[in-house]
Amino acid sequence: DVQLVESGGGSVQSGGSLRLSCAFSGYTYSAHCMGWFRQAPGQGREGLAAINTDGSTSYAAAVRGRFAISKDNDNNTLYLQMNSPQPEDTAMYYCAAGFVCTVSAGVAVWGQGTQVTVS
Fold it and tell me: Are the C-beta atoms of 43 and 110 separated by less than 8 Å?
């Protein structure tokens, strides 16, 4: 089975840093993009960052310059480095893989999510 498993969430103080990881298995993702989304209570799922097969990246305006996405193909792990998080970044964070990784409609596989709380 295809699996995406996030880890690294937790509580962090505003202005600190946190790194989320997503271990992927069961499929070769070399032909697909991968990305990170988040969903706060009462809100829709928001695309934050995506990395394409050629290594190019894109970011939502809300996190550009603070968050960084990267992918280690040798270790089958996707990362999201969160720098200077703010309370409004509090949400459940999801790893995703698909054909278009900036919007939910383009995602084929979701992880189970990891909670990030910024205080």
Answer: no
Task: Label residue 63 left, alpha or beta by phi (over 0 means left) and psi (-120 to 50 means alpha).
Answer: alpha
Q: In angstroms, rounded to a whole number, what is the distance separating the alpha carbons of residues 4 and 23?
A: 6
Residue 105 backbone dihedrals phi, psi, to 5 degrees: -65, -20
User: Cα-atom radius of gyration of the chain, to the nearest Å?
Assistant: 13
Strand partners for 88: none
**Which phi and psi (to 5°) does residue 78 adopt?**
-105, 145
Average pLDDT, integer, range 80-84 = 97
What contacts 20, CB < 8 A, 6 or more positions away? 6, 7, 8, 9, 36, 79, 80, 82, 93, 95, 114, 116
Say which amino acid occupies 63: V
Q: Provide DSSP, 21-40.
A: EEEEESS-GGGSEEEEEEE-
Mean pLDDT confidence for 54-67: 96
